[in-house]
Amino acid sequence: MSDQTITSVSRESRVFRPSAEFQRQANLGSLAAYKRLYAESVNAPEKFWGRQAKELLTWRRPFKKALSWKLPHAKWFVGGQLNVAENCVDRHLGTARENKAAIIFEGEPGDIRTLTYKQLHREVCRFANVLTGLGVGKGDRVAIYMPMVPEAAIGMLACARLGAIHTVIFGGFSSEAIKDRVNDCQAKVILTADGGWRRGKVVELKTNVDRAVGFTPSVQHVVVLKRTGNAVTMTEGRDRWWHELVDAAPVEHRAKGFDSENPLFILYTSGSTGKPKGVLHTSGGYLLGTAITTKYVFDLKETDIYFCTADIGWITGHSYVVYGPLANGATILMYEGAPNQPGPDRFWEMIDRHGATIFYTAPTAIRAFMRWGDEHVKKHSLKSLRLLGSVGEPINPEAWMWYHTLIGKKRCPIVDTWWQTETGAIMVSPLPGVTPTKPGSCTLPFFGVVPKVLDEQGREVPRDSGGKLFLKNPWPSMLRTLWGDDDRFKRQYWSELPGYYFAGDGARIDKDGYLWVVGRIDDVLNVSGHRIGTAEVESAMVSHPAVAEAAVVGRPDELKGQALVVFVITKSGVEPTKELREELRAHVAREIGALARPDDVRFAAGLPKTRSGKIMRRILKEIAAGGEIKGDTTTLEDFSVVSALQAQED
Ligand code: 7RM
What we know:
Blueprint: H1 20-25, H2 31-43, H3 45-56, E1 65-70, E2 73-78, E3 81-82, H4 84-88, E4 101-106, E5 112-116, H5 117-133, E6 141-145, H6 150-162, E7 165-168, H7 175-185, E8 189-193, E9 196-198, E10 201-203, H8 205-213, E11 221-225, E12 239-241, H9 242-247, E13 258-259, E14 263-269, E15 277-282, H10 284-297, E16 305-308, H11 315-327, E17 331-335, H12 346-354, E18 358-361, H13 363-372, H14 375-378, E19 387-390, H15 397-407, E20 414-416, E21 451-454, E22 466-471, E23 481-482, H16 486-494, E24 501-509, E25 515-520, E26 525-527, E27 530-532, H17 534-542, E28 547-557, E29 561-570, H18 578-592, E30 600-603, H19 617-624, H20 639-649
Helix pairs in contact: 2-3, 5-6, 7-8, 10-11, 13-15, 17-18
5'-O-(acetylsulfamoyl)adenosine is lined by residues 269, 315-316, 391-394, 416-421, 442, 503-505, 517, 520, 612.
């Protein structure tokens, strides 16, 4: 066995079987049915995906061939033409869905607005006409820097309708981030708003755009939605009010069909160093991947009210707020603001108010709810919920159990969904009602997905030992390239092991074939020759009752290779003392072995995270080693956290 495998130290062994009640009504009703379809999807992928594409999507011109695969470049549904917006909106008109709510929107101040499919159609058509009027056509890039309001989705769908390429820039990012991304893709138009609401304050989006746009010569127009009503400066000729343009635009718009491989969007994701990568997704394959996973992983029913808390600036917002649910004619609940505004129970209040049935969020949010206290949850019934989802990082068993008990009342299945910006759609996840779940495991591959856990030599590691996570076969919603940098695309994802897509994660597969992601490969700890994933150490740490959140990194150590430094946020009311520090070190040693006893426990008030909640361990590594912060920090949610950690250092 190679010494480059990862040692697993987790001892989680609980199994939760689906209830008969859920199983009876599930879209995919048995493990046998899953296995049969899965086998077909990997043995005869073209047949399987060809059939799904015909069943789930509406084509303007039928495709000739499901897949053309010239590694690492895939073309799905070759020769086919479709319109993505038509698939998400128009085709639900003239059916029972026409007057069904497509979007139920709640603003942070409490304003509520509902758009039926018919109304959404009207808005998308009008805005497509607006964009046409501004000179946007097929292949042009449009940047979207907006709050989580229906107009953000309308902007995306209007681009899709025209065959233009949107790039959503997360509304929490700075003008620096706007500048880099807009220049990289040479966007012609920016869609923004005067502001958005976050924690009772206005985030001045237009002001940030103004600061960037002096350095982005490609931008011809900025369209500004009036959301918060704060004063903004409008530059004559360049800046236009959303409502004025829309009021003057015709409501009729005839959509054209576009090639299945026509680009749909670019989404920038931060690289560990240097400039962000522009992940490119195209039309037919992406839409099929998001539509089919929404249908089966979320067991979507006509009557569901589906609440995904992700911002549209994240891939989860693209795939599971907008494209996947709308392609299925679902009702989505969309929320603008912070989860603790006005109180820590905002989500629970919303679930009860709107009768949400499916709730999809991230482990970092779940740990925050735990920290805020159970009493905020217990004030609400949550009886409408029937299914819960998790995404973004490995969910520690402690958080899984809390989610299961407090939110799901032990009756809702949890789907822990592993996927990436690059994969476009969910790759590994339980199917609710079908797959027995284990807290902390994302379980089994979705149709067409062949995960492999391999060592440095590309050999399969034995069951239960860790290695690098690869995907073997192409899948419809895979990224096609990195915008403007196909070499980087090949280097980054396809050179680790020839013929395989490298996910960048460490993982293990257990005796039941279940996948456990143990963290990013770049973050793997190396202690006295043992390689350990970050997730297992952090999970052991947060299983201590005093700990709310933890992040572990390695610091160069002459003796051990690396010393383990754990940054810990304690639960509210817990005093961070020297004794507690020793107790936590001993706790980890007890939970997973002396090998993983932290050398250093540092109490912190906050951890450096991206807005989607991922801990930026790269920054913590630099802090632990006492060095300066290098590399891209534009995706950091709050730089003051870093300053505070560094100050503590001195
Ligand atoms: C959807 C999304 C991708 C990275 C991925 C993992 C981590 C995401 C899970 C997870 C364990 C999960 N896209 N990750 N989901 N790890 N279990 N269920 O998050 O591009 O922003 O991030 O996130 O490391 O490679 S992303």
